[in-house]
Write a structure and sequence with these properties.
Elements (H helix, E strand, L loop, with lengths): L1 E3 L8 H8 L3 E3 L8 H15 L4 E6 L5 H5 L3 E10 L13 H6 L2 E4 L15 E3 L20 E6 L8 H7 L8 E6 L5 H10 L6 E5 L6 H6 L3 E4 L8 H8 L4 E4 L15 E3 L3 H17 L4 H12 L1 H13 L1 H5 L10 H11 L3
Parallel strand pairs: 1-2, 3-4, 4-5, 5-6, 7-8, 7-10, 8-9, 10-11, 11-12
Length: 347
């Protein structure tokens, strides 16, 4: 297996994990900066570094660069695109030239399929695999202080500031709020917590590593994710696997996680609705009516590792059976690709 990336940051967990399972990783000398230099370097250097052609190219990149990468796919191989995020297809998200070489496209949920039909290729829906290793069986416990957590990237669209606005007015005390994550809003969030005088009940815990997740979930009673847009957040799949209920905004494909699921709440993106749901869940958690064992079973049946792994194996290891016969695409020369990059860029 080969993993290639033009842009990366040293210490990114996925790269460390890939090295541990002996996946060959290729990057560039400009990996932390990205840009055109990184792209041009990879287009020249990878010609000699990638010696074996691949059966399937699975890519999050939907720019002109995917056309270049398709040069390393065997004549009978497949190019499968993917996208994690809002369930709509932005007009320019997939470059016209990349649309021409795709043999299939994977989205996170059935609700996203229709939006991607315009790509003109088969669309598959498979959620991404969450980090659920080490999830123990749920055990009921007496709860006095309710331990609420936000887990995610610290960007404004994730709704952390909305949660700060709601927090002082919630009738769920005694309760604490732990904010796990890092990002551009870290300093701004710290200042806002101090300004509101919430230092006693709110703590910013920073980013977490995958091996820390079991301990975090063990000391969390409720997760709140009031995002402005999402696809199917992995953190919510992880919550269910660990038996931790959540309140989330009804954006993207999150609603699908609440279907026939009495132990979570997905509500409109409005302070009043989110606050009401948190208060309702606090009562249910303390009374024992919200049950983590039921939530874990829900996850196992719908999103368990065995089920999703089989689907991913089928889509990427048995592409002809999953996607059907591939269409023939004429390969562009490297010189023509380079000319496209220099004159037009990737977008």
């Amino acid at each position: 297996m080969l993993f290639v990336t033009r842009n990366s940051t040293e210490g990114v967990p996925v790269l460390e994990a890939l090295r541990n399972i002996r996946v060959r990783c290729l990057s560039t000398p400009f990996a932390n900066r990205g840009g055109r230099a990184s792209t041009l370097w990879s287009m020249v250097a990878w010609q000699t570094q990638i010696r074996d052609h691949v059966d399937v190219l699975y890519t999050f990149d939907t720019t002109w660069f995917t056309v270049f990468l398709s040069r390393f796919v065997k004549p009978g191989g497949y190019v499968i695109g993917t996208h994690a995020g809002p369930p709509n297809l932005e007009k320019e998200y997939v470059h016209p030239a990349t649309r021409h070489i795709l043999n299939g496209f994977l989205v996170e949920s059935a609700s996203q399929v229709e939006a991607y039909r315009s790509l003109g290729v088969p669309i598959g829906a498979i959620p991404h695999l969450a980090n659920v290793g080490g999830a123990p069986g749920w055990r009921q416990r007496k709860i006095d202080t309710l331990r609420v957590a936000f887990m995610g990237r610290l960007d404004r669209n994730k709704g952390m500031y909305r949660l700060l606005d709601i927090w002082p007015r919630l009738q769920i005390q005694p309760a604490t709020l732990d904010i796990y994550g890092d990002g551009r809003e870290r300093l701004g969030l710290e200042r806002e917590v101090r300004r509101l005088g919430l230092d006693e009940s709110i703590r910013l815990r920073g980013a977490w590593a995958s091996e820390e997740l079991p301990a975090i979930m063990d000391k969390t009673d409720l997760v709140v994710l009031p995002s402005e847009y999402e696809g199917v957040p992995l953190v919510l799949l992880e919550c269910m696997a660990f038996g931790v209920p959540f309140v989330a905004s009804d954006v993207g494909a999150i609603r699908s996680l609440a279907e026939d699921n009495p132990d979570v709440r997905v509500v409109p993106l409005a302070n009043r609705a989110i606050a009401s749901a948190i208060q309702e869940m606090a009562i249910g958690i303390r009374s024992g009516n919200i049950r983590g064992d039921r939530l874990q079973e829900y996850h196992r049946i719908r999103y368990g590792y065995e089920k999703l792994a089989r689907q991913w194996m089928s889509a990427l290891i048995e592409p002809e059976e999953f996607w059907g016969p591939k269409k023939h695409v004429k390969q562009l020369s490297l010189s023509r690709l380079l000319l496209q990059i220099v004159t037009r860029g990737f977008n």
